[in-house]
Target: HAD hydrolase-like protein
Amino acid sequence: MKAIIFDLDGTLLQTEKVGVPAYRETFLELKKSGEFRGEIPDDEEIRSVFGLTHEQLWDKLLPDACAGLKDKANRLMLEKELALFHKGMGQVYSQVKETLMKLHDDGWPLFIASNGVGDYANTALETEGLFFLFKGIYTSGDYNTRDKTELVQRCKEEHDITGGYMVGDRSSDIKAGKENGMFTIGCRYDGFPRFGKEDELSEADRIIHSFGDLLQLIEK
Model:
């Protein structure tokens, strides 16, 4: 069957709404306990790691820390993110809900492939009322995959997906889609913070500047 596989952070979810305060609180707590003595990353540095695997992001934000401290930081961050979601701090981009509902009603099987963990992805989608729209939620944390390419491959194999679309905002999403034989759509929304480099989506088959534009590219 054909399907549409979505990245989560920076594609459906305005990650900075929860991610920036959660990271900041994590570093403040580590500083208070004396386990972190450096400068707390600014918002731009924090946003630059959105979409990376947890191993990659802590290697960037805590490059000199031991594995134990990185693990603790990761646990703290997740706890704070989940708490913020439950407080209603999560927010999807404009037109996400309407567009996903339309695709679902048109019979498209929808999936998530995220470099995060299951608790994060599930909570984000549940608190935004989107969880029921997806046939499967694949996260690097749950499947212990090396990269997004392997995660998308796993999703395709388990659901007999033969083609379709990969939608995301980072180069890893585009690479994963292309290496798995899918049409790739890059998300670069007007008026919102962008994560990654300026040429992040240069290899995408198409780029959309509003989530609703997706409907013009999806063939029924």
Observations:
- The longest helix spans residues 67-86.
- The chain has two domains: 2-14+91-216, 16-86.
